[in-house]
Amino acid sequence: MNVVLLLATVVSTTFLGFFHYQGFVTDFDGTVQRQVSMWHGLWYSATILAILGCHEMGHYFACRYYRVDASLPYFLPAPFLTGTLGAFIRIRQPIPTKRMLFDIGVAGPIAGFLVVVPTLFLGLSLSRVLPLPTDFTGIELGEPLLFRLAAWLIWGDTPAGYSLNLHPMAFAAWFGLLATALNLFPIGQLDGGHISYATLGSRSTLVTIGATVLTILLTFRSPSWIAWAVLIVVMMVTMGPRHPRTLDHHIPLDRTRVWVAVGALAMFILCFTPVPVEFTDVISE
User: Fold this and answer.
1) How far apart are CA 168 and CA 165, in angstroms?
2) 185, HSE (Cβ side, Cα atoms, 13 Å)
3) pLDDT given for residue 188 in this prediction
4) What is the distance between the alpha carbons of residues 229 and 255, in angstroms, rounded to a whole number?
């Protein structure tokens, strides 16, 4: 099943990546500047699979280190924008201690982030700043802080009436940033939920409730949060806001891991955007 889903995700991301590349070479005016083959879809496909794969393998190898029974990654294909709904591993037994829970939870975001950063800079360097047509309607991607910083370092300030035409590798890195932020939400069985519980203990329940309320409020800022908010609410209803206790729930986490948790929070801030996707209509006068 793992292999079948991986192959299906390779096909779906390559197929969608082909259209992303085709859109990239039109330079906003709808005219294809050069011949595009299906192989060009690998710019996007290879990048997003590397980001998601390294994220999940971070979890997997941490489980192997602690001899926790876990599956290899399951990739989820999708027939729309990103070509995938992400990936996950199955952990088949309870994780007994906070230290193990923390290390397994944080290993994935760190591993994925280490791939996101260089692919973001490379993808943005392959992108180009172009003038927008007189009348332009399209999808505007929210820009996480790290994305803005990388774009500014490479391209500087974008002049009025111009926009960054994203190379498919940069789009994959953008999706990787968003996926990292979603996983680091301090809620339930998400990576951020594990990190929050291991760091804060029982106080993490209040963090989970607060993060859930914030997720619902975000839907009023952007409709693109609705699906995520529904998923979070379902998780809260079925599993409750309290994280399952470890055997050493009364023992504080060591100082080194607390600092790593602070780093995970910084990672979340760098990858988060309040408006991931919105439709825009730009009319130049």
Assistant:
1) 10
2) 25
3) 86
4) 33
d(CA 240, CA 236): 5
- Tens digit of pLDDT for each residue in 199-233? 999 899 999 999 999 999 999 999 989 999 999 99
Q: What is the DSSP letter of 134?
A: S
DSSP string covering 209-229: HHHHHHHHHHHHH-GGGHHHH
pTM: 0.91
- pLDDT for 162 equals 83
Give the largest CA-CA distance in the chain. Answer: 65
The token pair that represents 263 in the structure block: 């780093």
Only one residue has tokens 């083959």, namely: 37
Position 66: which residue type? Y
Closest CA relative to residue 138, chosen from 226, 59, 27: 27
The owner of tokens 């760098």 is: 270
| Separation of alpha carbons 179 and 173, rounded Å | 10
